[in-house]
Amino acid sequence: MKKICEILELENNIYQIKGKDKGSHSYLLKGDFKNILIDSGLDKNFHKLQNSLLKLGIKIRDIDIVINTHEHFDHIGANRYFQDYALIAAHRLAATKITLEDKCVTLYKPGDMNELPQRVHLWLENGFRFDLGNSTLEIIHTPGHTSGSICIYERTQKILFTGDTLFAGGTLSYMKHSR
Q1: What pLDDT, on a 0 to 100 scale, did the predictor assign at position 64?
Q2: What is the DSSP string of 112-123?
Q3: DSSP helix/strand/coil, 77
Q4: C-alpha angle with apex 79: 173 to 8, nearest 5 degrees?
Q5: Are the beta carbons of 52 and 37 closer than 8 angstroms?
Q6: Which helix (H) or strand (E) holds 9?
Q7: Which of 79, 101, 110, 129 lies 20 to 30 angstroms, CA to CA, from 158?
C-alpha cells in the first residue's frame, strides 16, 4: 500500500481518499471502461476531494458513476458536484430518501442542504453489478445502519466496501433493533 498525502492506494487502481471533519472516506476505482467513486463525502470537503482526485490524474468529469453506500449527509454531501457529469447510484431505499430530501433520515441540518436538489440516476437492488473492465463490483443490500445501506464487493481483489455497515477494526455500526 502506497500513501500519497491523504490518499492510500489499497490495490492497483483502487484508492482510499480520507475524509475530514467526520466526513466519510471516498474510494476511487479506476477502471478500463469506467471510473467509479464510492461515497462523495461532506459537501464542505469537496475541494479536498477534488484536489485528491487531481493528484491521481482524475478530473470531476472523469468520474462516470458515484455510488452511495447509504443516504447520510456525510456520504452524499458532495454528490451535487458530480450529478451533471456522472450517474449517481444508491440502493432504491436510499435513493427515495435522497430525492425526497428527507432531512430526518439524511441528517441534513438547516444550512447544510444545497440549493440544488440531489438526484439519483441509478436505483440499485441487491445483486446489481458494475463491469469496470479490469474489475466487477457487486451490490449487497445490508440494511441495519439505514434501510438503504449497501456494501460493495470488488470481485477481482476481493475487497468489501462497507460504508457505515462495518467500521474500522471490525466494529458494527449502531443498529436499532425492534421487537
Answers
A1: 98
A2: TS-SSPP--SEE
A3: coil
A4: 60
A5: no
A6: strand 7-11
A7: 79
Write the CA distances from 48 to 19, 101, 152, integer angstroms: 9, 25, 24
The segments of the chain whose pLDDT lies below 70 read 1-5, 108-116, 167-179
Domain 2-170 CATH class label: alpha beta
Distances (CA, A) of 20 to 42, 44, 49: 8, 9, 10
Domain boundaries along the sequence of the chain:
2-170
Render 100-169 in DSSP notation, one character per residue. Answer: TT-HHHH---TTTS-SSPP--SEEE-TT-EEE-SS-EEEEEE-TTSSTT-EEEEETTTTEEE-TTSEEGG
Task: Quote the CA–CA distance of 90 and 118 in Å, as a whole number.
Answer: 12
Tell me the whole-structure pTM to 2 decimals.
Answer: 0.87
Neighbours of 117 (CB within 10 A): 12
Spatial separation of the C-alpha atoms in residues 88 and 51, rounded to whole Å = 20
The set of residues, in sequence order, having a beta carbon less than 8 Å from that of 51 and lying 6+ positions away, is none
What pLDDT, on the 0 to 100 scale, is given for residue 123? 97
Instruction: State residue 177's pLDDT score.
Output: 37
Q: Could you give the CA distance from residue 141 to residue 147 in angstroms, rounded to a whole number?
A: 9
The reported pLDDT for the residue numbered 53 is 97
